[in-house]
Write a structure and sequence with these properties.
Elements (H helix, E strand, L loop, with lengths): L18 E3 L6 E3 L9 E5 L41 H6 L30 H6 L12 H7 L4 H30 L1 E5 L2 H10 L7 H21 L4 E5 L8 H7 L8 H24 L4 E5 L2 H9 L8 E5 L26 E3 L7 H15 L5
Parallel strand pairs: 3-4, 4-5, 5-6, 7-8
Antiparallel strand pairs: 1-2
Length: about 375
């Protein structure tokens, strides 16, 4: 797929210190001085796509209202939710909503931009970008269905990014930034929830397909390592059977989570975790970190009142049962008035507030595993 180029011209300081903020106090704890996280670099699907799909001829984009109603004054940026997405919170200051938890801060930038954002500046390159494309997956077939950027396409963009970095800070500076940066990979939901259930199910049983997914993931991670990445976090699959879209299809009159789909997520996650252990053994100077989002999200769904949520089985946009992307639009009269009550924004994607809660927990639990 043909890729668009981003601009480059000036420079900024290379290093941004990593800090930890304790939500329960005013204390500021600085990590050891020799630890830096100069950039956050992201690959994946719609959960971390900040607008790379905006100029594609595809249904998998959302650069129109009501998407982005709580982002930068109501600007629809191409993020698949009402506001910011996980990569924004990981790259910026993250504060816990629940003061019983501890939060950390990666003081890098307020939002993590799309690599294909036409307004991108050299400063953005140096502190990180997202190459993610909504509708993509580990399975090469997944991205072809909606004509979006595959993981191979995203890797080619990353190679282009490296070339631009070398032009700005030289090869030595680029190698340092890559070795110290935090890389994130968020994939698998579209493979399990869409490609397998619609197409691949007739070709493979799920354990076999999960093995294929892990194989594709491993190949990508090895390539990423070969290009200089050393701190790599891999998000597991969420409880896909609890998405409003899946509940609408198989959750019955009570609109309950679909157990067999959740079991597929868990099986894939177990295989993915095992493969990351293997990669850590094979590449001892790197950190491949399995990031569990399955249990934090399931916890919010099962006990929403603990975090101040009320609606878990449908999204805010439209009827909340099937609307996503182009079906979630400003002409739908049923979109909710108070998104803060909802776990899901549309039938597939959580709200900004859910991302805040989950990412706060994730950073608290996993930040030291990258060091």
């Amino acid at each position: 797929m043909k890729m668009l180029s981003s601009s480059s011209s000036s420079t900024i300081p290379l290093f941004v210190s990593l800090f930890i903020i304790l939500c329960t106090s005013d204390a500021l704890v600085k990590l050891p001085e020799n630890e830096t996280v100069p950039a956050v670099i992201v690959f994946g699907d719609s959960i971390v796509d900040p607008g790379n799909n905006n100029n594609l001829v595809s249904f998998a984009k959302c650069n129109f209202p009501p998407y982005g109603q709580d982002f930068d004054g109501g600007k629809p940026s191409g993020r698949f939710t009402n506001g910011r997405i996980p990569s924004d919170f990981i790259g910026a200051k993250v504060f816990c909503l629940n003061l019983s938890h501890t939060a950390e801060e990666l003081g890098i930038k307020k939002i993590l931009p799309a690599y294909l954002d036409p307004t991108l500046q050299p400063a953005d390159l140096l502190t990180g970008v997202s190459f993610a494309s909504g509708g993509s997956g580990y399975d090469p077939l997944t991205s072809k269905i909606l004509q979006v950027f595959s993981l191979s396409d995203q890797l080619e963009m990353f190679k282009e990014y490296i070339g631009k970095m070398k032009a700005i800070v030289g090869e030595e500076g680029t190698n340092f930034i890559l070795s110290q940066s935090l890389f994130l990979l968020v994939q698998g939901s579209n493979d399990i929830g869409e490609t397998y259930s619609v197409i691949r199910k007739g070709q493979y049983d799920f354990p076999t397909y999960a093995d294929l997914m892990v194989g594709w993931a491993s190949s990508f991670l090895k390539e990423l390592h070969g290009l200089g990445a050393r701190r790599i976090g891999v998000f597991c699959a969420p409880p896909l059977g609890c998405l409003p879209s899946q509940i609408s299809i198989g959750g019955g009159k009570q609109r309950e989570c679909v157990d067999n789909i959740n079991e597929e997520s868990k099986l894939f996650n177990a295989k993915l975790s095992s493969e990351l252990d293997s990669l850590n053994t094979k590449f001892p100077l790197a950190r491949f970190v399995y990031i569990d989002i399955y249990n934090p999200l399931l916890g919010l769904i099962q006990n929403p009142e603990e975090s101040g949520f009320e609606v878990v089985d449908k999204g805010c946009c439209g009827t909340g049962s099937i609307e996503v992307a182009v079906l979630c639009n400003k002409f739908d009269p049923f979109t909710c008035d108070d998104v803060s009550k909802y776990v899901f924004w549309d039938s597939f994607h959580p709200t900004e507030r859910v991302y805040k809660v989950i990412i706060c927990e994730i950073i608290q639990e996993y930040v030291n595993k990258f060091l």
